[in-house]
Design brief:
single chain; alpha/beta; Rossmann fold; SIR2/SIRT2 'Small Domain'; 2 domains; elongated; binds adenosine-5-diphosphoribose
Length: about 230
């Protein structure tokens, strides 16, 4: 089976009603990154950070996978699909995809802010975290999110997957945040690279086939290409 590695970003979930970060009206227009997505912001005002992620979980609980997520899950019938997502939502899981790496963490999980960093799952009827919510060892619970300036524990595994991919697909990311945006550089020379995005995306590599569409439409076109590759 051909190995297809798919790097997804916030645009993958846009049609599910989840805000992207850098589009007009995106999350970084509504909030200061340094206040809600950095360790410094957490130490300065943990309640503001907890409120930000409680609000994003509330939005996620009202969202459903879109046709793009579903099409990606269905491709598993024909290809060895590995998803590397920058998204912290669980819509790829909900759509039925089975191999997913969350480079930037997971919204529906929290972890101890103590040395053990134990991870705990939240549920739809218990999705909020507040100051004073502590792990069994007495440490404040924090979002299980990789904030700017923090290590990306899964990046080595992600590089290993891109390195052996037969095809690389990039969907719904502005390719501005590293190390995720640098994964493209680990693709074997000459493999087909497809990029699905309704906007122009600045990518250093030239040999990319751009499908300038939203994820749901772009996935239809990608499936046609994969099923009948040009001879
Ligand atoms: N279908 C496909 N792509 C879309 C759609 C859509 N319906 N709508 C928007 N897009 C594209 C935008 O054109 C843009 O290129 O999705 C991309 C979203 O870019 P960003 O908002 O920068 O999101 P992302 O690239 O995922 O951000 C990466 O930055 O703030 C951090 O940790 C955060 O994981 C995030 C990282």
């Amino acid at each position: 089976m051909k190995k297809i590695v798919v790097l997804t970003g916030a645009g993958m979930s846009a049609e599910s009603g989840i805000n992207t970060f850098r589009d007009a009206g995106g999350l970084w227009e509504q909030h200061r990154v340094q206040d809600v997505a950095t360790p410094e912001g957490w130490h300065r005002n943990p309640q503001l950070v907890l409120d930000f992620y409680n609000e994003r979980r509330k939005q996620l609980l009202a969202a459903k996978p879109n046709a793009g997520h579903i099409a990606l899950a269905e491709l598993e019938k024909q290809y060895d699909i590995r998803i590397i997502t920058q998204n912290v939502d669980n819509l790829h899981e909900q759509a039925g995809s089975s191999h997913i790496i969350h480079l930037h963490g997971e919204l529906m999980k929290v972890r101890s802010s103590g040395p053990g960093e134990e991870v705990f799952k939240l549920t739809p009827d218990n999705y909020e975290t507040h100051l004073g919510d502590k792990c069994p060892k007495g440490y404040q619970l924090r979002p299980h999110i990789v904030w700017f300036g923090e290590a990306v524990p899964e990046i080595e595994q992600a590089i290993g997957l891109v390195n052996i991919a037969d095809i690389l697909v990039i969907i719904g990311t502005s390719m501005q945040v590293y190390p995720a945006a640098g994964l493209i550089n680990y693709a074997k020379p000459g493999i087909p690279i497809y990029l699905i995005d309704p906007q122009d995306v600045n990518v250093p590599t030239k040999n990319i086939l751009v499908i300038k569409k939203r994820a749901s439409e772009g996935m239809k076109e990608l499936k046609e290409i994969l099923d009948c590759p040009a001879t």
